[in-house]
Amino acid sequence: RCLSLEFPAADIAARTLAAALLDTPTPKRNRRYSVHLTHDMDMLRGNHRPSEPVRKALGDVVFRQDWRSAGDRLRYAYFTGEPWKSVLHLMKLSESKGLASRFFLMGPTNDTRDSPYTLREPNTVRRLAGMIIDRGHQVGFHPGFLTGTDPNEWCRQKKGLEKIIGFSVEEGRHHGLLFDAELTWDTWNDGGMRSDMTLG
To answer: Which pLDDT tens digit goes with each residue over 149-187?
Structure first.
């Protein structure tokens, strides 16, 4: 059988296992399947920090004497219409299939493993979230690296994001797919979240 978005292979394998364990060809089905298209917004533009492309372009010129790569790098970083171009493209693709996308935005963070776009471009984040909601898609939370084992930092970043976008978020996925069985679900539950899609 051909795999597709509508074919939940892992769930069907679990049902086959249940049939064998229960010795019945048709174990009771107690789940309904649905497709959730999710997009982690690790960066708003072609870089984590505004100075990154300039530093790398200088390296192209000074160390590699490669002016073309320097120009391409700067053009990609600052003049490609991001984040609007990619987000609109993903929404149009989802809509063409009759689906809604979920865009997971980072909260305010300066950790070097995260992108600080919420701190540096709060107005862009606010406008982007509004556009996503206006088109019938959803906005969620993409907590940074330090939140994986620090519920207080998780809460701080979530509240910071909600303050900027002007509404609460109830689902998301950890940056770097961080997960700790003893902490993560309790943190998300205590934070009023409906779903953590990290394991998915």
So the answer is: 899 999 999 999 999 999 999 999 999 888 888 888 899
Do the Cβ atoms of 175 and 142 come closer than 8 Å? yes
Q: What is the 3-state secondary structure (H, E, C) of 90-130?
A: HHHHHHHCCCCEEEEECCCCCCCCCCCHHHHCHHHHHHHHH
DSSP state of 40: E
159 neighbors 168 (Cβ within 8 angstroms): no
Are 168 and 124 a contacting pair, CB within 8 Å? no
The per-residue pLDDT for range 43-89, each reduced to its tens digit, is 888 776 777 878 888 888 888 888 888 888 888 778 888 899 999 99
Q: What does the pLDDT look like over 3-32, one tens digit per residue?
A: 566 667 777 888 888 889 988 888 877 767
Q: Which strand (E) or helix (H) includes residue 131?
A: helix 122-134
Q: Are strands 171-172 and 101-105 parallel, antiparallel or unpaired?
A: unpaired
For the chain, state the CA radius of gyration: 20
